[in-house]
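Q: Joint fold for the lines below.
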Amino acid sequence: MPDGSSGQFVRIAGLKRYFDVSAPWLVRMLERRPRQIVQAVDGIDIEIAKGETFSLVGESGCGKSTVARLVVGLYPPTAGRIEFDGNDMAGRRSGADMAALRRRMQMIFQDPYASLNPRWRVFDIIAEPIRAFGLSSDKADLEKRVGDLLRQVRLTPADGRKFPHEFSGGQRQRISIARALASQPEFLVCDEPTSALDVSVQAQILNLMVDLQRRFGLTYLFISHNLAVVYHISTRVGVMYLGRLVEVAPTETLFTRPKHPYTRMLLDTIPDLDMTGRQRSPVAGEVPSPINPPSGCTFHPRCPFAQDRCRAERPVPIAIEGGTVACHAIEEGRLPVEERTYVANS
Amino acid sequence: MAAPSNNPPLLEVKNLRVEFPTRRGTLLAVDDVSFDIAPGEVLGVVGESGAGKSLTGNAIIGLLEPPGRIAGGEIRLEGRRIDDLPYEEMRKVRGARIGAIFQDPLTSLNPLYSVGHQLIETIQTHLPLSSAEARTRALDLLKEVGIPGAETRIDHYPHQFSGGMRQRVVIALALCAGPRLIVADEPTTALDVSIQAQIIALLKRLCREHGTAVMLVTHDMGVIAETADRVAVMYAGRIAEIGPVRDVVKHAKHPYTKGLMGSIPSLGVRTERLTQIDGAMPRLTEIPTGCAFNPRCTERGGRCLVERPDLMAVGATRAACWQHDRGGVGPAIVREAVDA
Amino acid sequence: MATGAAFSGWLHRAADSDIWWSFKSSPMTIAAATATFLIVAVAFLSPVLAPHTPFDPATLNLSDGLKPPVLLSADGDWRFPLGTDDQGRDILSSIMYGTRLSLLVGLASVVVAMALGIVLGLLSGYLGGTVDAVIMRVADVQLTFPAILVALLIDGVVRGLISVKRHDEIAVFVIVGAIGLSFWVQYARTVRGSVMVEKNKEYVQAARVIGLSPLLIMVRHVLPNVTGPVLVIATINLGLAIITEATLSFLGVGLPSTQPSLGTLIRLGNEVLQSGDWWITVFPGATLAALVLAVNLLGDWLRDALNPKLR
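A: Joint structure:
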């Protein structure tokens, strides 16, 4: 552990990312419009232990995908710190050291139709990280590696000669996974890896991801809007709302003893496949614009428990039952925690 | 034409076939599909992408995209045949008797006109109302679909609405002429979960209050389970199973439906692995002989490879699987022999 | 062996592709392609095929001057099927050599414009910001000058800088540069637009995650995916470039009469048109029209064939 600052494998502290979506300067001046800043990620802290699956859930626009892209370095953070195995990702280091760090983390994208270069053969797509990091010197070794990767995701080495358009959505996502595994990473950031797939194929991909995790001791940061999928795959779950983490908890705890009113609301919206007659209570309102988020606790306009303090003061996360919650009502004890039970769908 | 039955179905689809001529031959995308929808009933149609569910819906509303075309069978609405109507006639039926809701609300709305303008235009096309009356009706519709501040929102443009609100406007548009049937194609797919629940609740309430039947096309079994009275499961252009939603969801009769239900992660039990159906749905060019599901089926027999099963009754459900035929699935087959 | 197998595999895929299919099913395109192929083949084989070498003064005989086309006059001379000009040059041979020159100038200027446009478009689209703003403003300014004007301007500047004799020697390069410089904007804008779409696609992000440099990403990932529209523009621009060259030559600022292109031939014929010797200008003119029409039809077809929306 080079820096020795933390025992956690991945540590995100005070992470912020703002996007400037203002009109061009001239238009702004002429129409007297103010600068517009989207607070996509507004100060979040996450710690992920080695070998676990940490999931981020939330509705579209809550900033979960931005977190994924910040972690793998596709965007620089506006503020905050990302540590990977004790290394500050923003620290100054040589190109070789940076490549060594990058090799250890990879990303799987949402859309299997956009994440593979349509002009490249599958072999070259999978071989690209191996070549980029110089992990293989001769051709025979490269061919063997790519063949093994294809087999690991239940394709055949002969598939390497084909082009992406010759594969179905599920098969393409397997190719993406094979590519992500090519540099033998330890940490995979998965941005909605199954949401573009049909359910039966989704099950194949989720099973494959679980198998690979066990086999290679991978750590996952899993981004999803599908709570049932998150329930199935995660060790711990963080719930995001308008760029902030409102609740983090071990999976069982989050689903059986949800605390934050937003978490409860999200759980209410899970479709009832068990036909228990439970009414999905439609939640009033929609997610406000992240350009001008509400004051205090950003959830207060939709929250049935909101009080003056919620409108004025931003709640800080407090530790509770192995997780954290950012809610005044919970902190003050006004909102009792209820136990939820689910009937297994056999 | 006099209907022979006392309680005729609102929509009758009989042996519908939709085909796509391509340079590699004609693809049969919907193959011999038959079902009825009763007045006020919600029929869910589920299936994976490419199963033919959206094409079936588009065939009914007469909006098949060329070169796709109806190659056989018939579609009757209230006893009247509608699949062979000329375009202009069908356009009238589509507005007045059948409403349509699509996945992406933005494509159903013209960005250049205010939602009020579009509603009033649609109302006046189908109903003999003055402009003032049409505006009142448009306002009522917007209120009914739950748009807050409808009096001011009526003059707003589509881009000024959020996704959920836009889908409400589309629903109002579909309701303009008081249709008997609404064909809703993935109406909640583009929306967030919390908004999905709102839209589904709205659809359910509207159909209850107006007695409108809904054909709900979706890939989301959860939406079907909550909304539909009956469900048709489609696979490779055919109906694999059709029956009351509770029977299909809880006691599936077709191996494909069973696999599909098992592959949905559920709350309550956390299993190490989900049930998965190996392989993928065949492309239309490569549909196997016999039962189209046979290469992925764990329960297949020799008969499944050669003979194609029709829908057969199993209790209240009908399933296209030889398991439910007296003859059974036929002799067990050695896996290697087939896969080779 | 391996390359043979790869080639036959490629051939097989090409024969199976949508493009080949759309080509086969369009008689107009087949006709255009045949015409283009014939014109190009004859033009480039002109040293072998042409009956005369019209620009070798040693072979010219003034007594052969102004002979009309053979089929249209009693005293037709079969040595000159399309007649001769006032110098006694064979029109058919002149056209063959002239077409070759026109095609070379057209192709070369398209390549210049394409190279310039692709590089600037890639930089502009991928880097964005100030680089993008500067390149696009230059493009805007460029667009306010018609291509002919730009070419005239460049030609004029070059003429002012060097002697007339030197100018005739480098006239081809001047005109290629001039036309190339006036056509780059369209490529740059198209490439920029495509790049801005492609660079946000996940496969480009995947390449960024493994730390590839922007230059590598542009060349390896983005460029191959924006070639389709560039190819279409190139084909359509080929016709335009040939016309522009002909126009410049007709105006007398293009290629000199010692190495005449189709445009030069039309100008030379135009000077004697009043005296009734129409064949000197009409035949080169018809050849130019046929060539440009065929190339444009091919371009139209290519645009439709590569447009996924129309497929």
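Q: Anything notable?
A: The first helix of chain A runs from residue 25 to 31. DSSP finds twelve helices and twelve strands in chain A.
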